[in-house]
Amino acid sequence: MIEHRSHTYGVLGEFDTEHQLITAAEKTREAGYKHFEAYAPFPVEGLSEALGLKRNKVPLITLIGGLCGGLGGFFFQYWCNVYAYPLNIAGRPLNSWPAFIPVTFELTVLGASLSAVFGMLALNGLPQPHHPLFNVERFSKHATSDKFFLCIEARDKKFDLADASRFLQGINAHHVTEVLDD
Amino acid sequence: MSVGQPPLNSPELRRLSPVLEPGHTYATVTDKIAAIVLTRPVSLGWLAGFGLTFSFVMILNIAVGWLIIKGVGIWGINVPIGWGFAIVNFVWWIGIGHAGTLISAILFLLNQKWRTSINRFAEAMTLFAVACAGLFPLIHTGRPWMAYYMFPYPSTMGIWPQFRSPLIWDVFAVSTYGTVSALFWFVGLIPDLATLRDRAIGKPKQIIYGMLALGWRGSARHWHRYQSAYLLLAGLATPLVLSVHTVVSFDFSVAIVPGWHTTIFPPYFVAGAIYSGFAMVLTIAIPLRKAYDLQDFITMRHLENMAKVMLATGLIVAYGYFFEFFLSLYSGNKFDVFLVKQRLYGPYNHFYFALILCNILTPQLLWFQKIRTNVAMLFVMSLIINLGMWLERFVIVVISLTRDFMPSAWGRYSATVWDYATFAGTLGLFTMLLFLFVRVLPAISIAEMRELVAETTEEHK
Known about the structure:
The complex is a heterodimer of chains A (182) and B (461).
Chain A lengths: L1 H4 L2 E8 L2 H13 L5 E4 L7 H4 L7 H27 L16 H23 L13 H6 L5 E6 L7 H10 L3 E7 L2
Chain B lengths: L10 H6 L9 H13 L5 H27 L13 H26 L6 H25 L25 H34 L3 H11 L6 H34 L11 H27 L8 H32 L2 H12 L3 H13 L7 H4 L2 H28 L14 H24 L5 H15 L1
Helix pairs in contact in B: 2-16, 3-15, 4-5, 4-8, 4-9, 4-14, 5-6, 5-15, 6-7, 6-8, 8-9, 9-10, 9-14, 10-11, 11-12, 12-14
């Protein structure tokens, strides 16, 4: 049994509607499973709460990116036009900061946007060309189209192939299958 | 929309012209949109359209090639009119792009459901319009291979850009706008690319869509972060889009040229940008929904709402024209007063009157619901408004430059065949990219349509 487990990624169950998936996620959490994941073809309202997901780090990363872009942008312009290449135009101050604001603003937005997107991808572990779930035919066929899935993962301490399969069937999942890890 | 419906202004119409025709499920929206890309055979109409627009891109190649060989002297520009068609077209194209960002970002923040089926191609339109726009200042420099001088980079020459110049602000605004629009578009595409990956038949398609989908699998944790990132991008793109045309208007208003040096320019440029952009979205949406049978998804409600936005922004633009006119007269500044007279009685006054006709008088028809729900009329009006906005930029650029402070610095401007060829070429490039886009990427966001199905079925219960 232990040998077998090393090749199992988890057990996958399929649901027809987003409401069933939310109920299933709640029940799985109540049953004491920690490592399980829900899959949906669109962002389902209430699913994050059902899974007990807390606030994520994307906003923080975006804030940091925006601050770096803005401060970096402003002081770079300052350095360029005050130290590196000062131009005296009719005796106006070299640090004419209001004129630096448009570029500072643009670079703030640029820094924040780049960090939002790449931060989100990095936290999600993407790009990831292969995943064990893609071995399941019904998952590949329906997960990005019209069905909802819940996978209890083998790394969960409570995981047992037979128990988890029976549990998923008990919460009205159909097409319950084992997901292999290669 | 079918004929034989209740009175046009009844609340019944709201129910009868929904944002998504009833009866759709997750599977049907997925099938229908993905099929346009994956299974639909290439039609003769598509080939003809692509071929025609491709030939215009060849004209663009020749025009730009000749420009690089001979220099900007092949255009109609000369002192004192240094800014002819190139800047007119730049401002026009970048304005068109603004509607895409407005639809995808601002309407998203305002939770407007009707944005869902039009945001994807409107964003594509933004990207292609920004590409066309970016080309003009680049080739207008005369030595486009030196354009990198505008970016700050360390070099042995030890020179750095002058950051107090609006032209440098422009470089940063437009390149940031292009980058953020591309990011926004791509993030929106990831779940749909995964759908295409899973439905594609044949290895090459599976590999290409698979790589672009980055391994997306719809995990709830991924969606959780994805939604945060998307919302943040929308929040960032909103002030960005307002800033871009503001910065473009600074190119004019920071200068002291009569007719340019006015504080009304930023809001009036932004409103004009959104106005022309919505006109362009309609110009694209009307043939698109017809050609690919998307009337279920791009319903009368969408067209009508876009017409209303056009009417509203058109009125802001009209207000802008009026105040530009009024403030010039009220200021008592003789150069400003003179410029107003030049617009009304000068050698280019027919452009000014055509502009008033296209941008102020024509859109007043949109007050009538009969016209807002008449697809053919909307299409014609969208073309007229596109033309009107182009004329507006022509009036701003050319009339002011031909009538400077001193009569000795006055001049006349007329475009050459190369000006027209370059402009027609970018129209071809824009349309060709749209033709390619509808064949290789889903023109409507499938994931968001599924969300809409979920929401509308909820409402019906």
